[in-house]
Specification:
The protein is mostly helical. The chain contains 15 helices and no strands. It has helices spanning 3-7, 10-34, 40-62, 73-93, 99-106, 109-119, 127-144, 152-175, 181-197, 200-203, 209-235, 238-241, 247-260, 266-289, 292-295. The longest helix is centred in the C-terminal third of the chain and has 27 residues, at 209-235.
Length: 296
């Protein structure tokens, strides 16, 4: 698929991204459950292990060329490093920050994606995408409603994690121009898992039955979500998908209620309405921009 074809189907990319971020919200809920008993590198290793097994099998079955021979292999290695540090920082910051504070700080990432898409990908970001992203961020701020200033170090950790994640998102868009989704998943998760495994002599704790079920389930949902999201970046520019990441907050509140019976406050519903509005604005804007010939 050429880059031109990718650019002509932004609505398909938006739909795929919505499903992908819903899967990531489930992933975050599982990690929140596991982090009380296990260290973050062990949890993330099991997640990567499942992704490597599934994507590696499919890569060999479909005879995809090795991404490590690609001209973009340095970008794949860099993305693995960025994701590794983003996850470590984010989930370790979660030990010190309230969920509202953590969410507000981390959702600076979509704004950063827009700036990086201009700088690295040379994308033209129009008024509709800026508006959707800003409205979505306002919705996050209203929904989270931080009650006090968080500690400096965990705050810095979360903001840096958001920057690393935004940068890795840009690299997905760049590498997707020439590499298949499965090869990217395999290479990134392999490097990611190896980095986590280095810490095993100090942090490994053999999981119980529930721990194994949750960790393997985490890997399965991460595999599905990552594949769907990577495919989304094939069809839409990174700046167009940035506001869609805000929908993950809505899913997080839904899972919080279903799993832990957490009932969101009024401000949460107000913020969620703004987030939904930002996504609707984006979809309507993209529909207006897509030529009628491309929709047929």
């Amino acid at each position: 698929m050429t880059s031109g074809n990718q650019e002509s189907r932004p609505l398909a990319g938006i739909a795929l991204a919505c499903v992908g971020y819903a899967c990531f919200a489930i992933q975050d809920a599982i990690v929140k459950w596991l982090v009380a008993d296990y260290e973050v590198p062990e949890i993330l290793f099991m997640r990567s292990f499942v992704i490597v097994v599934v994507s590696g099998f499919l890569v060999r079955y479909r005879k995809h060329p090795s991404v490590f021979k690609s001209p973009h292999r340095s970008s794949v290695v860099l993305r693995a490093a960025l994701m590794f540090f983003a996850w470590l920082l984010f989930y370790n910051a979660a030990r010190h920050l309230e969920l509202a504070q953590l969410t507000t700080l981390y959702f600076s990432a979509p704004i950063i994606v827009i700036f990086l898409s201009i700088w690295i990908l040379k994308e033209r970001v129009d008024a509709g995408r800026w508006l959707a992203c800003i409205v979505g961020f306002l919705g996050v701020a209203v929904a989270a409603n931080p009650s006090h200033t968080p500690d400096l170090i965990p705050t810095a950790m979360c903001l840096v994690a958001g920057f690393f994640w935004a940068w890795s998102t840009i690299l997905v868009r760049l590498v997707s121009r020439s590499e298949s989704t499965l090869t990217q998943m395999y290479a990134t998760s392999l490097l990611f898992g190896l980095a986590c495994a280095v810490s095993f002599p100090w942090i490994w704790k053999t999981p119980d039955l529930m721990g194994w079920v949750l960790m393997l389930g985490l890997g399965a949902i991460a595999t599905i979500g990552q594949f769907i999201l990577y495919e989304g970046f094939r069809y839409a520019p990174a700046s167009a998908l940035a506001p869609i990441e805000y929908t993950g907050l809505i899913w997080a509140f839904a899972y919080g209620y279903l799993i832990w019976a957490e009932v969101p406050a009024t401000n949460v519903f107000a913020g969620a309405a703004l987030i939904v509005a930002s996504s609707v604005v984006l979809i309507l804007w993209e529909r207006r921009r897509v030529p009628s010939a491309a929709q047929d």
